[in-house]
Amino acid sequence: MAFPLRDTPGGARFLVRVSPRASRTAIIGIMGDGPQAALKIALQAPPLEGRANAALIGFLADLLKVPRSSIEIGSGERGRTKTIMVRGRTAEEITALVEQALPQ
To answer: Other C-beta atoms within 10 Å of 66: how many?
Structure first.
């Protein structure tokens, strides 16, 4: 896996780069390299009134098999690059689930 995840006392943290108004919601791949690498996710939702953020949280909750309340946008709520905090999962567990969803 080429994007950095960090275990924190409450779960794990990683970066995502979103592309709103896509034809479908899915993981596109990994963007960048090194510590600033991010998981790239296409979202059908528009970036209006928090709809894209809500769609991102729902998508990640389903993907990582955690309740929506376990996913938090730590920073970047109004931007395309966001820091995601996931409670109840380790970096190793997240890596395994994301690798299954990555396009081949």
So the answer is: 19
Cα gap 60→72, rounded to integer Å: 10
CA 54-27-58 angle, to 5 degrees, is: 20
Measured between alpha carbons, how far is 68 from 63 in angstroms, rounded to an integer?
Answer: 11
Which helix (H) or strand (E) element contains residue 74?
A: strand 71-75
- Residue 26 CB neighbours (<10 A): 17
pTM: 0.93
Instruction: Return the DSSP state at 56.
Output: H
pLDDT of residue 2: 64
H/E element, 99: helix 91-101
